[in-house]
Amino acid sequence: MTRISVLVLLLLCWAATAMADGYNYVEQDQFKLWLELGKDLAIVDIQVPEEFQQHHFKGSLETNSYPVKSAADRQKLDAVLPKLSATQKDVVVICPRGGGGAKNTYDYLKEKGIDEKRIFILKEGMQGWPYKELMVGGK
After folding, report:
1. Domains plus CATH for the chain?
2. What one-character-per-residue DSSP string does 7-74 give?
3. Please, is 67 exposed, middle or buried when counting C-beta atoms within 10 Å of its C-beta (0-12, 13-18, 19+)?
């Protein structure tokens, strides 16, 4: 596939992402395509340690910050902020169900200066992810 074709495909894929409730979401099929194309992403995984060990995406930044309600939870996210700030990569937030914890993470990253246009929540989180073969652990 030529570079132009890949760029056009990525642009079309970006347009297919959903925005709802004031948050940017990425659908499972879209995220699968990003993974298969090797899109350069920062994957911020907020699952608790046991869930992360059971299943996560290769290259994920493990934060164990779920549900991101307390100062201690947010402090766990602070550890990945320098990595996120140092690049212009899109950031995909992974949580158990893609709900409140993901929104709390999104809001916190935005508050800390990460451009909202770069932040996406995986719709339905790990619980809704149908492509087990693309996970480490795959349980």
Report:
1. 3-134 (3.40.250.10)
2. HHHHHHHHHH-EEETTEEEE-HHHHHHHHHHT--EEEEE---HHHHHHSB-TT-EE---TT--SHHHH
3. middle
Closest CA to 139 of 48, 32, 55: 55
Burial bucket for residue 101 (CB in 10 Å: 0-12, 13-18, 19+): buried
Q: Which pLDDT score is estimated for 4?
A: 64
55: number of Cβ within 10 Å: 17
Are 19 and 7 contacting, i.e. CB atoms less than 8 angstroms apart?
Answer: no
Q: Read off the amino acid at residue 10.
A: L
Q: Residue 87, Cβ neighbours under 10 Å: how many?
A: 12
What tokens appear for 76 in the block? 């766990």
User: pLDDT tens, position by position, for the chain (139 residues)?
Assistant: 566 655 455 444 444 445 557 999 999 999 999 999 999 999 999 999 999 999 999 999 999 999 999 999 999 999 999 999 999 999 999 999 999 999 999 999 999 999 999 999 999 999 999 999 999 986 5
